[in-house]
Amino acid sequence: MTVRVFYALVTLALSAAVAFFVYQNTISPDAKYPFKFGLDLAGGSQLTYVADVSKVNPAEVPELMEVLRGVIERRVNVFGVSEPLVQVEKSSVVAETVEQRLIVELPGVTDIDEAVKSIGETPLLEFKLVDEEALAAQAAIESINIENAKITNNNKTEPYIDTGLTGRYLQSAQLQFAGQTSGGLANEPIVAISFNEEGAELFAEITGNNPGETLAIFLDGEIISSPRINERITGGQAIISGGFTPEEARSLAENLSFGALPVPITLDSTETIGSSLGERALRDGVYAGVVGFIILSLFMIAWYRLTGLIAVIALLIYVAVMLALFQFIPVVLTAAGMAGLILSIGLAVDANVLIAERIKEELRSGKGNDEAIKEGFGRAWLAIRDANVAHIIAGVILFWFGTSLIKGFALVLLIGVFVSMLSAITISRTLLRAIPVNTNSKIGRFLMSSGLAK
Amino acid sequence: MDLKKYQNYFFILPIILVVVSLAALFIFGLKPNIELSGGSLLQVHYVESRPEAEAVHEKIAPLDLGEVLVQPSGENDYILRQRALTQEEKISLDQALASFGPVEEERYTSIGPSIGKELVRKAWWAISLVVLSIIIYIAFAFRHVGDITSASERNSVRSWQYGVVAIITLVHDIIIPLGLYAWLGYYTGAEVGTLFIVALLTILGISINDTIVIFDRIRENLAINEAKKNHHESFADVVWKSITQTMARSINTSLTVIVMLLALVFLGPESTRGMAITLTVGMVAGTYSSIFLASPLLVLVEKYQNRSKTVKA
Predict the structure, then answer these.
(1) Pick the CATH number of B40-110 from 3.30.70.3400, 3.30.420.10, 3.30.70.20, 3.30.390.50
(2) Of A109, A147, A295, B60, which has the fewest Cβ atoms less than 10 A away?
(3) Which of A280, A401, A404, A411 is the best residue to mutate to test the B interface, defined by the most B CB atoms within 10 Å of its own CB?
(4) What pTM does this model have?
(5) pLDDT value at residue B311
(6) Cα separations in angstroms, B114 against A213, A403, B16, B119, B123
């Protein structure tokens, strides 16, 4: 008996420690493991960009997206947002068309106009060789087309040939004035760029292989200058001149210094949630959870008496463990995640009810208290395990289905299934076995039975 | 109380509800929200007082944003729904709304069509996967039930028939919330989105549990009878005995979940209210169906099976 009481006390002490951990991390402003709230609770914005990778070799896509992520992250960091999140996401395998997306999360930022504008200013820099013949042919066809619109160009050759040299190889950009180095009109503002090692090699190769050709420089899809290649250029230095005003050149150099887009992107979706709406959602969610829990506890104690009271204590420990896990893992809490937690509290009772009902049946069949508890837990375990299999299946599929907000719900439900098995089986049993109940006495029978039975 | 006597009456309610729900689904259909169909939603809060909806409509008409749905929300809020907006259009919309007085943006969502399409496809996949895994799970859980009454003269209910009955029950549990939302969509403009689908998938997971617990009892009681060579008890008696034994558990566990869900419906955040309503309705339907639909259906199956046998002989 004393050993049982000891186990029960250890269980309670550990649970109290867990609860204290949660409490500390919740109230302390510089806690090591604070709750992490999703945008819908904390307020903030999420921007989803779609990258156009149709012209890129599929094998290179992951690397390009990583470069893109870096470029956008550097831009976003300028805003001084705390913990911005920039991540690459691929459309799911079941989508009709494969899309590469870039998701930018800006916690606390609700005025996104500036952010969108700034990200939109990231230049797209491309170098393309010009096929003079195709260019001439195209010009000719266009002029014919004006006279007779029905003639179509059957052997259309793209006059601009991709070289693979893009802004992804850019290392730095600088505003200069022509004449300081070479060529151009005196004092014309130009942007001098330098490539990284890889880019420099590629640049040398292109210029070496195509002397006399024209290498057009495209900025955001528009041709801005088409210098002729005189000789192989090593060292990875290039100049962009395009009749800029000093201001234009300065802003281009500035924008390029954050990096240039390796592939074009377009803003597809935005989501902004004001902080007051988020705060209200959080407050309402907590309130609903607390009120629900109190009603649930009253019901459990009224109906299942002693086993009900133990179940309520086990549930409290369940909630503490869940919250501690949310802080520790950490799980990003969303409104759907809170709903998941509240639902999972209701579901976690299930195991306790199953056990209480089984114990009652065992007692009715004439077994003593100790034996009834042992048998009740043993026989309920199979049902609890079977019951949870369906939850686990649904949880895993939901997790895959979910957008980030729904993943929270699925994850909470999944964690809940495992923690509830732990709390119902180990914690309830340890506590229940520590309390000596004489089922031969009237009070003892009353405490262990349920409902309207005496 | 002899529930067995009223067995066939228990089918009346589910049949009516399913017929009404299906009718609502076919007549009204479901309204997808912008997550699924693409488009944008702007919720603004007027600090002082909100203008008339008419005035808002007039003000934004020249912006050429297509069809704009202006819906009052709360005391001083408006929710505007329209097609997906470009950044410039969004800014001009903000300016138009701000011309009525100080205004705060509570929420803005703009979703491009491709993401919505992907979500719809994903939803179908998720639903199919859940249903498929549940069928496999039932087949696994009940792989031995069919063998039990081999010594009896009557044909026993086969394992796969338990599975089919469980699935009919699930379909019932899903159709009712769907019908409710078709109806709500028509009368209150309620829309379905990813959270609605999540709620449906969750109902599938929860409601199959209740059914399995009762089927489990039936299996246990059949096995006990078999061991005792007790063939006097009819299948219907075994089924109703099992229902009575598990009734307290079924109702109590559902009740605890429903208590939490109702708290979420009435006190919880606005954004999960629809989800909580769907879950509550699904839970109620699921509890009723696992007690009063699934098991009586088994009795019907058993009766039908043995009638055909005697006719043949």
Answers:
(1) 3.30.70.3400
(2) A147
(3) A401
(4) 0.83
(5) 47
(6) 41, 14, 39, 9, 14
